[in-house]
């Protein structure tokens, strides 16, 4: 799913245009068959990747998880989402239900563009990122659940696409270089971990000629050689 494979980049203010939506829906649908579909069906969790516009600027909506939450993700920057429940028909249903529970937003499946590929979290559980467009944020009333969400904030796509706001962290395993993950800087909160990887995949989808992948996991499809400073 390397950036150039997503096609030509739209004009900066066209990231959420009808033409971009059609292109992205087609690409996500084409990438979602075979093994990707099986992985999504087997995934234990899903998150919504909430595209939106803020005063006309294409943006992504993030949450800051409440520190009172149990588990390793408390206090993390995240997208709305969580574990799949037995009543959820699929990953899209999980992402929409979790968004309703966390943010009080009732979204229809028509807002969903498609699914990015499933990714493992820190515990190895597969998570399905579900891309959706909320539309103008000014037209929505967010009601964050204080038991789960400490804060919501947005970052413009233009901010995320500036190289000075992009970084990466090298991790060591067994005393040697292991892998590299992206980080996004200079916003209200640092975006890192799985949320940063999903942000990266979203930028590659929306702006394939403007974003250069930072993630590098040797021997995996996710890998692309990182830029070494």
TrEMBL record:
Highest taxon in the source lineage: Eukaryota
Metal-binding keyword on record: yes
Boundaries of every Nudix hydrolase domain copy: 38-185
Pfam families: NUDIX
Cofactor requirement: Mg(2+); Mn(2+)
One GO MF term attached to the UniProt entry: coenzyme A diphosphatase activity
Coiled coil (residue ranges): none
Signal peptide residues on this chain, from the entry's feature table: none
Keywords, sorted A to Z: Hydrolase, Magnesium, Manganese, Metal-binding
Protein name: Nudix hydrolase 8
Organism of provenance: Anser brachyrhynchus
């Amino acid at each position: 799913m390397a950036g150039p494979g997503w096609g030509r980049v739209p004009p900066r203010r066209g990231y959420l245009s009808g033409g971009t939506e059609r292109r992205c829906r087609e690409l996500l649908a084409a990438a979602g068959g075979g093994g990707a579909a099986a992985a999504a069906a087997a995934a234990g969790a899903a998150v919504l990747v909430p595209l939106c516009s803020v005063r006309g600027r294409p943006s992504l909506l993030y949450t800051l998880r409440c520190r009172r939450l149990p588990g390793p993700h408390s206090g993390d920057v995240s997208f709305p989402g969580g574990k799949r429940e037995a009543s959820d028909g699929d990953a899209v249903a999980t992402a929409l239900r979790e968004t309703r529970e966390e943010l009080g937003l009732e979204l229809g499946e028509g807002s969903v563009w498609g699914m990015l590929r499933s990714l493992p979290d820190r515990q190895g559980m597969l998570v399905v990122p579900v891309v959706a467009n909320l539309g103008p944020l000014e037209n929505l009333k967010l009601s964050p659940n204080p038991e789960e969400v400490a804060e919501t904030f947005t970052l413009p796509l233009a901010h995320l696409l500036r190289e000075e706001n992009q970084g990466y962290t090298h991790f060591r395993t067994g005393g040697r270089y292991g892998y590299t993950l992206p980080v996004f800087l200079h916003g209200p909160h640092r975006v890192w971990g799985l949320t940063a990887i999903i942000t990266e995949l979203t930028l590659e989808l929306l702006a394939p000629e403007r974003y250069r992948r930072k993630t590098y996991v040797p021997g995996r499809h996710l890998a692309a050689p990182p830029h070494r400073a």
